[in-house]
Specification:
27 strands, alpha+beta, Spore Coat Polysaccharide Biosynthesis Protein SpsA, Chain A, 18 helices, single chain, five-stranded mixed sheet, 3 domains, eleven-stranded antiparallel sheet
């Protein structure tokens, strides 16, 4: 028995038009994400069966899909696609009241759009919303289901449309990897078990794994290709992937660039394909939010923009996507000028029109490429990957690539604004902070980065990139697991909460954070309980925490890893003198240097350059 309120029938349309899926209703999975509030909200009369991927409801049980993954977010679909009407279906068994709601984008108004009473004695698909015009609505449309008897079940569901789709969309997924076999094999298994088995997506997607480490075995799949490649970093890997896509003679319409160390639900690839096939814009680009791998409900960023003084500025950081209002606000469009290449989708023709990545090795290649193509980037709620927090990955080699490549980026795109004085401030200020924190090796990495930048564009590609990377990675100032590290939580918290008055700060800076003070002014460091042994949060290092200490343990409480540094007056002044010398060289060389970088840019992003640099044999 089906009793429907306020719903038109479109049986005649079903016969004439093809149903196109927009997004599936998905459930938590133990091997991907089990934060249930990202998928559904429920009361105590509801149990989710992980093994069968089924919601089980007793009488009075209520499930609501007003969530990050399973609500339908109206605004982006209205603005960037041809979709004007939607439908929804559920596969279920039992006696239910199903209500469809709309909440505006600010979460201020909640409206009932339709309601159904359904009584199924077997599990089957039921249409609960048909041909609904979304033009008058904003925010989210979602389903709420209440069980009217015991032993009810909900297994699957989806939103759909009868809007005509472009069936010519075909996506090439390019994954760049270097000796991360476990991540790659897991993600390919997830793809093979879900997305690649669905007949409606045959001939709509292929995967190109660019193996910079030359360690992967081939997959027993005609659409998963493993391409051995010279280790030229992420830039070289993605450039090789783009070259492989270009050789397919117009077979692909879009490319997705993906990191190798992410976790994702294969559903996002279906949603990307569905969105592109219904898009009303030719050159639309789609990015992905990055969620934290350690706290899977916290968003690191939903895109970002580059600030000439601050560097990376993430948009909507630290959002708790379990919360309804934050999820709604997350869909409010904000300015971004790039999306990280952990997951970035764009039309193949933009490669032909704009060239290949710049040979940065790692860091800044996504920022530069997105700026170069200059297209609007859309990031939808429910399109995300999980990634290890960046603060866990910070080390001197990352600092090297950031400073070298950011100075090249400023030279390319901010030639007039990036004066010699600004360039000196750009590297000298963070270098002084590292010196004040006794992280002399990290400061030396900034020195190396600045020196290599001053060598000019030809030096960037003169040597084998993997040899340069080995040299850069020699530093010991990176967190490691060591049970011998004497960690004391009370000291950690004390340093986290430590403060100072203006007079103390003035004295500390005047003495170069203690490097001009005599030895007797420092605390003793005989044991970890002495004041001379400071324990500092790794991601929140401050010169204040090192002042007058002889040893500092930088500790990551989340991973329980760390490293110890020691006060050294000799190393401080050695690095400082080198930095002052490089400042003088920067003052003299930068105007001409910027021109060299700009003049060589077209060559370094050309197909001929990358084929030679990657030592690709002609086919």
């Amino acid at each position: 028995m089906v009793n429907q309120l306020e719903l038109p029938t479109i049986c005649h349309l079903i016969q004439k038009e093809r149903l196109n899926h927009l997004q599936n209703i998905i459930f938590p999975k133990t091997d991907i994400c089990s934060v249930e509030e990202l998928f559904f909200r429920s009361n105590e009369q509801v149990l989710f069966n992980y093994e069968n991927q089924t919601l089980e409801l007793n009488q009075g049980g209520i499930v609501s899909f007003d969530t990050y993954f399973n609500a339908f977010y109206v605004d982006s679909w209205k603005e960037y696609t041809k979709v004007t009407t939607i439908g929804a279906s559920l596969t279920l068994k039992g006696n239910f009241k199903i209500t469809i709601y709309n909440i505006d984008r600010l979460g201020e108004t909640k409206t009932v759009l339709a309601q159904k009473i359904i009584n199924n004695n077997k599990i089957e698909k039921i249409t609960v919303l048909e041909n609904f015009d979304i033009s008058a609505y904003t925010g989210m449309i979602y389903l709420e289901i209440e069980a009217l008897e015991n032993m009810c079940q909900i297994s699957t569901g989806y939103f759909c449309t009868f809007t005509e789709a472009d069936t010519k969309v075909k996506i090439a997924v390019v994954i760049c990897t270097y000796k991360r076999e476990a991540y790659v094999y897991k993600n390919m298994k997830l793809l093979e078990e879900s997305f690649l088995k669905q007949t409606e997506y045959e001939d709509k997607l292929e995967v190109f794994i660019i193996d910079n480490g030359n360690t992967l075995e081939r997959f027993n799949s005609p659409i998963i290709h493993v391409i051995p490649n010279k280790n030229a970093g992420g830039s070289g890997g993605f450039a090789r992937g783009m070259l492989e896509v270009l050789q397919q003679q117009h077979e692909f319409s879009h490319t997705i660039l993906m990191d190798d160390d992410i976790l994702f639900d294969p559903e996002i690839l279906q949603r990307i394909w569905n969105f592109l096939s219904l898009s009303n814009q030719k050159d639309i680009c789609l990015g992905s939010s990055m969620l934290r791998l350690d706290k899977k409900y916290i968003q690191h960023e939903k895109g970002a923009y580059w600030n000439r003084n601050k560097g990376f500025v993430p948009v909507k950081p630290d959002m708790d996507l379990r919360k309804l209002k934050e999820t709604l606000f997350n869909e409010v469009d904000e300015y971004i000028d790039y999306s990280g290449w952990w997951f970035f989708c764009f039309p193949v023709n933009l490669i032909k029109d704009n060239g290949l990545p710049y040979p940065f090795f790692i860091k800044m290649d996504d920022v530069e490429f997105c700026r170069r193509i200059g297209k609007k980037i859309i990031i939808l709620n429910g399109i995300c990957v999980w990634h290890e927090p960046f603060e866990n990955k910070k080390n001197p080699s990352i600092e090297y690539y950031f400073f070298r490549n950011s100075m090249i980026y400023h030279s390319l795109y901010f030639q007039k604004e990036f004066s010699s004085i600004k360039a000196i401030k750009w590297f000298l200020k963070p270098l002084l902070k590292e010196l004040f924190c006794y992280r002399y090796e990290t400061a030396e990495s900034i020195i190396k980065a600045t020196f290599d930048f001053l060598e000019g564009p030809d030096a960037l590609v003169a040597n084998q990139p993997q040899d340069k990377h080995k040299e850069v990675c020699q530093s010991r100032e990176k967190t490691t697991k060591d049970p011998e590290l004497p960690f004391v939580y009370s000291k950690y918290i004390a340093n986290l909460e430590k403060s100072e008055n203006p007079l103390h700060r003035f004295f500390r800076l005047l003495t170069l954070n203690g490097h001009l003070l005599p030895n007797w002014f420092f605390f003793a460091d005989d044991t970890f309980s002495d004041k001379g042994y400071s324990i500092v949060p790794f991601a929140n290092s401050r010169p204040l925490n090192a002042f007058r200490a002889k040893k500092v343990l930088y500790y990551n409480l989340q991973t329980q890893e760390g490293f110890i540094v020691k006060f050294s007056r000799n190393r401080f002044f050695e690095v400082l003198i080198n930095a002052l010398w490089l400042s003088l060289v920067m003052l003299l060389k930068l105007p001409k240097l910027k021109t060299l970088y700009i003049n060589s840019f077209s060559e370094f992003t050309s197909q001929a350059f990358w084929e030679k640099y990657l030592e690709i044999e002609p086919k």
